[in-house]
């Protein structure tokens, strides 16, 4: 199946990209118009992970030629963003377009090659910079592969990476990387739990005082065997229960 013909590889593939919120916004476009156009013109499925995380995962699935088209559109969109930001700044050197792929660690060896031979070959033949992260992404068996260069170099580079990934499929189970939210979106206040999703359910201004009161209530801890809930309104069963409060740094 993985014969490389002139028309590209004729197999279905999934490529995952790690993007910052700002980059994702650029790909989605106003009212989702940009991503809709990318889906229609490339024929690839493009999914963007939910959540108010600083990082999001963009998954591109489809026949390889559709994936390359989608990648080309993303690379050119990022180049356009760079050009727009350049016109408003005094910077003279133009930064390269950078994409971060998320690749199962078990495939990274093939991508690097013996003594780094494969990655060197990809760099030299495409003119793109390619770096494979030494560490796995948190709570996963995946690594980030950063590609930077001109849009054309990036497209050529992605094509070569796809060939490698098809020739050496992942070994064993892959635990996919899932970005974590910037702050834990559940806050207990005054015996009431608030969930914060995106910009909704914004907590009350007096919430911090409530958090402070809670902290006061938490010490001393409820003796074992006593069933008074540590938080009013929350059932304390089992009697010894731990509540972890995460408060974002800026607060």
TrEMBL record:
SMART domains: KH. The keyword DNA-binding does not apply. Residues 227-251 are annotated as: Disordered. Signal peptide: none annotated. One of its GO terms (molecular function) is RNA binding. InterPro entries: KH_dom (IPR004087), KH_dom_type_1 (IPR004088), KH_dom_type_1_sf (IPR036612). CDD domains: KH-I_PCBP3_rpt1, KH-I_PCBP3_rpt2. Keywords: Repeat, RNA-binding. Pfam families: KH_1. This is Poly(RC)-binding protein 3.
